[in-house]
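lol so apparently i was supposed to do this last week
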Amino acid sequence: MLLLCALGSACRARASPGPTVPPQVAPGATSGRQLKLGAAVQRARLVDARDPAYASTFAETFDSLTPELELKLEHLLPRPGAYDWAAADDLVAYAGAHRKEMRGHTLVWHRALPAWMLSRSWTREELLAFLKGHVAAVVGRYRGRIAEWDVVNEAFNDDGTWRKSLWYDVLGPGYVEAAFRFAREADPGAKLYYNDYGAEWMNAKSDAILALATRLRKAGVLDGVGLQAHFNAGWYTSGPDLAANMARFAAAGLEVEITELDVAMSSRHGSAEEKLRDQARIYGGIAAACQAQPACKQLTVWGVSDRYTWLTPSDVPLLFDAAYAPKPAYAAIRAAIPAPRPTP
Ligand code: XIL
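anyway here it is w/ XIL bound
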C-alpha cells in the first residue's frame, strides 16, 4: 500500500486511488438548491484589511466563514482562566455585518491546546469540569450567531480506534458524547458536527465515525459529520467514492459537509497548465458529489487564495491564485454549485 506524507505530520495510506473518471453527475443537475460555499479565514487578514483583495475576494465569493485559528483553545485561552475573546469577537462581528454564516471550529481537538493545559496533571473530575465550562463559555458566548460547530475534531485513528490525546487519556472515549451534550445545552439551535480527515471514502475510519455519529444522532446531540478533504494530486477521493460514502451517512439521518477542502499540487509532475487542469478536475468531482447529495449542506475550502495557505506555497491548493485571479478550480466549483445570491 502506497504511503503519502505530503500533508504535514500524518502519512496516510492511499486506500482508494482517485480514478480519472468524472463523477456520475451532470454539472448543475440538481441545481435547484443553494449549496453554501465557505472558506476558512484569519482575522488579521480579513478584519485588519492590510490586504484589501483578500477581504473583497472573500466577501464577494463565499457564503460562510470558518475561523482558521481564532476559536481554538490555544488562541482563546493562552493562560488559565483568562479568555481572550478579541480575535473571535472580531470575526463574529464581521460575519454579522457581512451576512456570512459561521462554522465554529473547533471545541475539542488533540492539537492547538495551550502549553499550560499540557504541562499540568488533570484528574477526571477536573478535566470534565473544564470541558463543561469551556464549551458552555464559547458556545454560550456566540449562541445564535455561530450556526454550527465542529464540536469534536479528529478523535479517531485511521484504523478506526480512538486517538490518544489529553481528552482520551484522562476521560476515555466518553469525552466525545460529553462535549456534544454540553454544546447542545449551550446553544440548542446550533448544528453540531463531528469533523475528521481521511474519512472521505469508505474505510475503517469512516466506519467508526458513522457508528459514533449514528449513536449520538439517536441521542439527539449530533447533527452531522464534517469531512475535511485535505487532498493532494495523488491522494484524493473521487466523486463516486465520496458520493457512496456520503450516501450511507445520509441514510443514517446525518447531515454531511466538506469542511476543509484544498488540493495540494506540488507532488504532481507536469506543466503549470496540466496541474491547474488536474486540480480543477479534483475540485469539480468533490463539488458535484456534494451538490448531488441533499444531505451535503455546505462545502468549505481551507483558505481564500494561494497567497496564504497552511501548506507550502508551491502547493497552490486553493481556488484563487496569489494575485486573486480565479483559477480553473473555481470555474469547476461554480459549474457544479450555482453562484451565490447577490448580497443586497
Ligand atoms: C491548521 C491551520 O490551517 C494552521 O494555520 C494551523 O497552524 C494548524 O491548524 N485540520 C484541521 C484544521 O481541523 O484546524 C487545521 O488547521 C488543518 C488540519
